[in-house]
Amino acid sequence: MSGRLTDEVVLVTGAARGIGRAIAIKAAEEGAAVALLDILPDELETTAAELEHSGATIAASVGDITDEDSVRRSVAELTKTLGRPITVLINNAGRNSYADATTMTVAEWDSVFAVDLKGAWLMARAVLPEMIEAKRGAIVNIASIHTQLTTAGMFPYAAAKSGLVGMTRSLALDIAPHGIRVNAVSPGFIATDLLEEFFDTIPDARETALAVHPLGRVGTPEEVAEVVCFLASKAAAFVTGANWSVDGGLGIRYA
């Protein structure tokens, strides 16, 4: 299978469902060998079986991106199974947060930042040595529209995702001399389980969101995957340190 990602080995975290699953499928369609990493074993197995049935070259590992030993084991396992080092990392795994700043515990705060920020660094740290040695590679971090505007009741999600965009910029500068690019993608309202969780948690959120979307609808995981795979490919060879919005125009609306 030939495409924009032919000869690439693409590792997707949070690959079992939602945006991660769509990215994994699109990357395979674009010719990549795909490494799937998730903490949900049953859903990961289902996604892996679907990709295998399509004829894609894949490997899957159950792992926790917030634990450095688990990250190290999973990356080693996936690399060994595929027989090649990772050339593209998609840091997609994430979680929502609905906390009160005055009552949130330190443990709860740490758990949000562990998934939404620290995990992306641990994954990058694990794959970068091989990329640096090869003088090639790409990282795409899945951030959020919350990096630019946010909503009440989701503390401290915007802080964690904003940190991810800041890390994207810093890392892009530091590793550019090695021929490696780092970009972020900030989805808006995308039809996933996390969006349904948001709609179920915040009163009237569904109706409010649909009413203000310039395109009159929420997006799909597949639409995000298209942008991610472009940024991961050589077609975006002169793009690094950027944060691309995939939000149907919501982020440009005044009110």
Automatic annotation (TrEMBL):
Q: Where is the Ketoreductase domain?
A: 8-188
Q: Which InterPro entries match?
A: KR_dom, NAD(P)-bd_dom_sf, Sc_DH/Rdtase_CS, SDR_fam
Q: Which UniProt keywords apply?
A: Oxidoreductase
- Which Pfam families does the entry mention? adh_short_C2 (PF13561)
Magnesium as a keyword? no
- Say yes or no: keyword Membrane present: no
Recorded family membership:
Belongs to the short-chain dehydrogenases/reductases (SDR) family.
* Protein name stated in the entry: SDR family oxidoreductase
Q: Which organism is it from?
A: Kribbella ginsengisoli
